[in-house]
UniProtKB/TrEMBL annotation:
InterPro entries: Multi_antbiot-R_MarC (IPR002771). This is UPF0056 membrane protein. Keywords: Cell membrane, Membrane, Transmembrane, Transmembrane helix. Its main location: membrane. GO terms for cellular component: plasma membrane. Belongs to the UPF0056 (MarC) family. The chain crosses the membrane at residues 13-33, 45-64, 70-90, 111-135, 141-162, 183-204.
Amino acid sequence: MNDIMDLRLFTEVFITLFVIMDPPGTVPIFLGLTSAMGAKQRNQAARTAILVAFGVIVSFAVFGQQILNYMGISLPALKASGGLLLLLVAMELLTGKMEEPTPSGNKGVNVALVPLGTPLLAGPGAIVATMVFVQRADGSAADWVAIAAGVVAVHLTLFLAMRFANVIHRVLGDSGTILVTRIAGLLLAAIAVQLVADAVTAFVQMAG
């Protein structure tokens, strides 16, 4: 089996990305961001978000370092920008703006792309971790298969977690979902502040 896929590397990739992308922790945030949607729209948003996240992760795995080098963007800058974007979304969740209907009638599109697809799922942490695994690979087919399988497995787990969110929504009802939305906003704000703090620490270390 190790000739086809490095099981140890697969396990490492899966566990690392699982911890960073946090499928169980995504459920309340997903519910909050899609609280104004019906079940069908929520499922569509889940599919779109997973496809976007997968596309971003794969793109950075293959071309990430070249893209950052070409544009002169440092990893701390990527973290800081992702943190600021998530902080704006967290404020909307906490103030209830996410529950207001959009005039376009296309409720799921923007939320599924940003912030769900990126930077919530395919955020700086997941991007950097994937780039590190690619750089560590020795170029063998078994390593590439292990990394690809690990990335796919995590995204399948994320999709299942968000599909399960419909069941949670039915159990909680509208009032429970609003409560979860506020809690999700608080958690998302904490994640955003941590990203910005990590970026500031990295900038200070680079300056020193």
